[in-house]
Design goal:
The complex is a heterodimer. By secondary structure, chain A is an alpha+beta fold. Chain A is built from 12 helices and 14 strands. Chain A has helices spanning 12-18, 32-37, 73-78, 80-85, 87-94, 99-104, 107-113, 120-126, 140-143, 211-219, 223-227, 244-261; strands at 5-7, 23-26, 45-48, 58-61, 64-68, 130-133, 137-139, 144-146, 149-150, 158-164, 168-175, 182-190, 196-201, 208-209. The radius of gyration of chain A is 18 Å and the shape is globular. By secondary structure, chain B is an alpha+beta fold. Chain B folds into 3 domains: 14-138 and 198-251 and 256-289, Aldehyde oxidase/xanthine dehydrogenase, a/b hammerhead (Aldehyde Oxidoreductase, domain 3, Alpha-Beta Complex), CATH 3.90.1170; 296-464 and 636-791, Aldehyde Oxidoreductase, domain 4 (2-Layer Sandwich); 480-632, 2-Layer Sandwich (Aldehyde Oxidoreductase, domain 4), CATH 3.30.365.10. Chain B contains 19 helices and 28 strands. Chain B is globular. The chains are: A alpha+beta, B alpha+beta.
């Protein structure tokens, strides 16, 4: 690892001020630290956000769940309030990585990194999340732009994520046998008025809302309605663990599992 | 005193390992040490045009940067193949030179060509980034099937062929096949594996400028052999000036048999810079440069009668050696593979023909089971296929072809001293509730799942020896083992063994057998290993040989101690030797009940006199002290065997394979410590099941290893395994006094065909290659659905 300057700002303003084109914000460090260790990324300044108290915590108020950006996966997984409001979100957090990762990794770090196989982005999209930064509020659908790419600007810091509480929801993932990241993950959320969102992760350059599945399930919330949806393998990821064709087929299989579990 | 052999003695090693008090190579630091970083080829095949170290040499903290030119100039030798194999046409095998640092050509991704030595690890890494290398990239040879038609990687090695070896009689096989009712044919791939020892390789070198002695701490399974090779072939230092220490070693599985480039380079460089050097592999380096395992393509044929009798067997295999031939690289796909390919069966005629080829990939060498897993996979898959094609139950077809009398002369090489394959398979059948499978299958089907059952019976040849035989077959050294037992004056015993424990628990097992032999409490016995300065020469640990060879050397040395003690006791008790019985650590005169303990005898042997009288307890001709050694060279290999039965449940929607039940019944002869043996079986099964279901080392067409991390190389995890159902039968080995057979590799040998036979059974006989990953299985399930709907 190359040498760098380490900063531990006390508030968001100070953190933002410290940032430059050669800096990185550090939360759990579950991606940043290994990348630095392997020499894949080098930074002049590492700005640790974990010292900023107000960035962490879970708050449920009515139909809104607000999770602070540096809240660890383990906290999300065990939150009693959240388990009541959106049990599928707590379950998703419980299924990320391993205990070490869950005890360090954060929700803000995960969505800022926007790994194509990360779990949280699908939850953000399915649960109509709004991502609040130090400058603005961004809808999840416009937040995730491409592989490891978000609409965050330089110096912009995620403060919290607000999720809409659905009437029913479930997340099902087919884990990569080696890394246990999602080969594909399907997040199904049904809201009042029967509107259904189906968000997929692992299948493309980043998580996305599958319009066809969402429409079909909005009309008829049953596994049989999924049968009639055609999922093309065009544009779907292919790697040594799963071909595009297999992934496309598994999206339907896992969407059904999610609907069944709703 | 009750016998300790056979009892569940808790491991002496546990306290050290479970409390973090193990001392591994990377834990060793020498004052004033430098740090080494190896510069490795990023290309699978290239010519080195120029290495420019000028900028790097000026980088902060750099002590020196050494290249292939330097090491060639100092005439330091390279790595070697330990076995000379001859081709069918009588010609000797062809091996390329494998210099410790490549000078002209690099031949796999990870091949080292320079070393940077610096004051700190970070400085070494920074400088390494500044070394400029100009390569001429050449087309890599990576496709095993096409290797022989590809460019020759090494000058003078035509078709990339190391040897084209034959064992068996082609004419006899032809005659047998002519008589057959049916010929079963099978094409299989034995997937390439990366050993993944928990502890990465490492070495710490300490050169003493005054004594000119090099001490090399290293992660080795056989430090004595490493010293021998480094001295005799590397020319690093004479053996008396070279001490190799392999302290606690965190797993090897064969990958740490070899002496590697890094030990030679760092030992040589330490002398050159007159400073200690420390090198510890990063995980990526382990993936790229530890020797890999397996990697065969096999076409096999089995000639059978309609009622399921085997008449003959053909095995045509291409084995991947990787870029260079290493210590066990050439023997693993020949003598460790070919003979075992006919399995546990009476096979009137057979041959194994193996073409071993070079490719631009990491060297392939022994990996847990070495050759026997590949052999067992071949025969057990084809036997199952025969059962399917003939409509015979898989257990029945095996029973029909078992030998029932021992010793059994196996078709190709081995004379198997003992075994009872019928008893083993019957026990496995009962323990696995084989007859209840139909009901369980129905139950799975009611949930939309497919269920399959798979059977394997195996034997293997391990405890690799005896020396005259292995040397006749081409081995460069004898494969005996040595031990020295030192009975200290005050009653404790220190035992030096040439075997090496890197997870095998020798401290416990060896102490158990010595405690029984000497009648001394196990607490008073210490086992010392892994240091060429401590104890006699040894050949190390691999091929499940520690107990059957090294353990017996200890038994024999203990017997010599007891015998000398008896002579001394006789003199002390003033009786003749034949009036004395030795048991439970006491020399007892039967008729008078007078006795001396072995501790008293030992004490007397070191203090041979009394006050006021000239009187020695030592018989004439005996020298003081109680130290004995033994070199044991067994009369044969040992032949463990067993029957394993697995059940899988497949989800046809996803192709996910769940290993639901696994029963292993093994015959390891006498079992010294059941806890340790069960642990060995569990570990072997985990690796064998890993090969069947998850592990697969893959190179792309350009020779890049695309599974070079745990993100892509699928190590099996606890949730891939069911609770293992273990059973044992026992026929004692007749070739050693304890009746023991090796147990370390059985699981890795038997599990792949057992699991795959179960998968293929669930898929209605549709064949897939290992590993049975979800997508492959899913495709087979879809085909099955298609066929079924067409049939309906």
């Amino acid at each position: 690892m190359k040498t760098f300057d380490y900063h531990s700002p006390k508030d968001v303003k100070e953190a933002s001020k410290l940032s430059s084109s050669k800096s990185v914000f550090l939360a759990g460090g579950m991606t940043t630290i290994p990348s630095m260790k392997l020499g894949l990324a080098t930074y002049k300044d590492v700005i640790n956000l974990k010292g900023i108290k107000k960035l962490s915590g879970i708050k449920v108020s009515g139909k809104i769940v607000k999770i602070g950006a540096t809240t660890q996966h383990a906290e999300v997984a065990k939150s009693k309030e959240l388990k009541k409001a959106i049990p599928s979100l707590a379950a998703l957090a419980e299924g990320i990585g391993d205990p070490q990762v869950r005890n360090r990794g954060t929700i803000g770090g995960s969505i800022a990194n926007n790994d194509p196989a990360a779990d949280y982005p699908s939850a953000c999209i399915a649960l109509n999340a709004v991502i609040h930064t130090n400058n603005r509020s961004i809808n999840a659908e416009t937040f995730f732009k491409g592989m490891y790419e978000t609409s965050l600007k330089s110096g912009e810091i995620i403060e919290s994520i607000e999720f809409e509480v659905p009437s029913k929801s479930n997340y099902q993932k087919l884990p990569n046998p080696a890394s246990r990241y999602a080969v594909i993950g399907v997040y199904v959320a049904r809201f009042k008025g029967d509107n259904v969102n189906v968000a997929i992760t692992g299948a493309k350059s980043c998580a996305y809302l599958d319009k066809n599945l969402s429409d079909a399930l909005s009309k008829d919330f049953s596994t049989s309605s999924i049968n009639n949806v055609n999922i093309s393998s065009k544009g779907i990821n292919s790697d040594i663990h799963a071909s595009a064709n297999y992934r496309a087929n598994m999206i339907k299989v896992y969407a059904k599992k999610a609907v069944e579990a709703c | 005193m009750a016998s300790l052999v056979g009892s569940r003695v808790e491991r002496k090693e546990d306290k050290r390992f479970l409390t973090g008090k193990g001392r591994y190579t990377a834990d060793i630091n020498i004052v004033n040490q430098t740090y080494a970083i190896f510069i490795r080829s990023p290309h699978a095949r290239a010519k080195i045009k120029k290495i420019d170290t000028s900028k790097a040499l000026k980088s902060s903290g750099v002590v020196d940067i050494l290249t292939g030119e330097h090491i060639a100039k100092d005439k330091i030798g390279g790595l070697i193949a330990g076995w000379a194999i001859r081709s069918e046409d009588g010609s000797e095998m062809k091996c390329p030179a494998n210099p410790p640092l490549a000078k002209d050509n690099v031949n796999f991704v990870g091949d080292p060509l320079a070393v940077v030595l610096a004051e700190s690890l970070d400085e070494a890494k920074e400088a390494a980034d500044l070394v400029k290398i100009d390569y001429k990239i050449l087309e890599a040879v990576t496709n095993l099937e096409k290797t022989m038609e590809s460019d020759a990687i090494h000058d003078g090695i035509d078709k990339n062929l190391c040897y084209d070896w034959l064992l068996g009689d082609r004419q006899k096989v032809k005659e047998a096949f002519d008589k057959a009712d049916k010929i079963i044919k099978l094409d299989i791939t034995n997937n390439r594996l990366i050993p993944n020892a928990m502890e990465p390789r490492a070495c710490v070198i300490d050169y003493n400028t005054a004594s000119e002695e090099i001490t090399c701490y290293t992660t080795s399974q056989n430090p004595h052999l490493s010293r021998l090779i480094m001295s005799a072939f590397g020319g690093v230092a004479p053996e008396n000036k070279l001490r190799v220490v392999a302290p606690d070693v965190g797993g090897g599985f064969g990958s740490k048999i070899n002496l590697y480039n890094e030990e030679i380079v760092c030992s040589w460089a330490s002398k050159k810079i007159e400073r200690p050097i420390k090198w510890v592999a990063e995980r990526t380096e382990s993936f790229l440069t530890d020797t890999h395992g397996r990697d065969h393509i096999t076409h096999a044929e089995l000639a059978v009668t309609n009622d399921g009798k085997f008449l003959g067997f053909k095995n045509e295999t291409i084995a991947n050696l990787g870029a260079y031939a290493r210590v066990f690289g050439t023997v693993t796909p020949t003598y460790l593979f070919g003979p075992c390919a006919t399995g546990v069966y009476v096979m009137p005629a057979a041959y194994s023909n193996v073409k071993a080829v070079y490719t631009n990939t990491a060297p392939v060498d022994a990996y847990r089971g070495a050759g026997r897993p590949e052999a067992t996979y071949t025969i057990e898959r084809i036997v199952d296929k025969a059962a399917i094609e003939l409509g015979i139950d898989p257990i029945e077809i095996r029973m029909k072809n078992f030998p029932t009398e021992f010793p059994f002369k196996q078709t190709l090489v081995h004379q198997i001293d003992s075994g009872d394959y019928v008893a083993g398979l019957n026990k496995a059948k009962e323990m696995s509730d084989y007859d209840g499978f139909v009901a369980r299958k129905k139950e799975s089907e009611s949930r939309g799942k497919l269920r399959g059952i798979g059977v394997t019976t195996y034997f293997e040849a391990c405890g690799i020896a005896p020396s005259p035989v292995v040397m006749m077959l081409g081995c460069g050294v004898g494969l005996w083992e040595s031990a020295e037992v030192r009975f200290n004056p005050t009653g404790q015993v220190t035992i030096y063994t040439g075997s090496h424990s890197h997870g095998q628990s020798h401290q416990t097992t060896f102490a158990q057998i010595a405690a029984d032999e000497l009648g001394v409490p196990i607490e008073n016995i210490d086992i010392v290993h892994g240091d060429t300065d401590k104890g006699t020469f040894g050949m190390g640990t691999y091929g499940s040989r520690s107990l059957t060879v090294g353990g017996i050397a200890i038994v024999n040395a203990c017997k010599k101690i007891v015998a000398k003690g008896k002579r001394i006791a006789a003199k002390m008790l003033e009786v003749s030797e034949d009036e004395i019985d030795f048991s439970n650590g006491e020399y007892v005169v039967a008729k008078s009940n007078k006795k001396k303990t072995i501790g008293e005898v030992a004490f007397a042997s070191y203090l041979p006199g009394v006050r006021d009288e000239v009187k020695s307890p030592l018989p004439e001709g005996d020298e003081p002290g109680l130290i004995e050694s033994s070199f044991f060279d067994p009369a044969n290999f040992s032949f463990p065997a067993g029957s394993h039965i697995a059940e899988v449940e497949i989800d046809p929607e996803t192709g996910n394979v769940k290993l639901d039940k696994y029963t292993a019944v093994d015959d390891f002869g006498t079992i010294v410590n059941p806890i340790i043996v069960e642990g060995q079986v569990h570990g072997g099964l985990a690796q064998g099941i890993g090969q069947a279901l998850t592990e697969n080392a893959q190179y792309d067409d350009t020779g890049q290893l695309i599974t070079a991390s745990y993100m892509d190389y699928t190590m099996p995890r606890a949730d891939n395994f069911p609770e293992f159902n273990l059973g044992f039968t026992c026929t004692k080995a007749t070739t050693n006094p304890l009746g023991v057979k090796g147990c370390g590799e059985a699981g890795a040998i038997a599990a792949p065909p057992t699991v795959m036979n179960a998968v293929i059974n669930a898929l209605g006989g549709r064949e897939i290659d290992m590993p049975a990953t979800a997508e492959k299985v899913w495709e087979a399930c879809n085909e099955m659905k298609k066929t079924n709907s067409e049939a309906a």
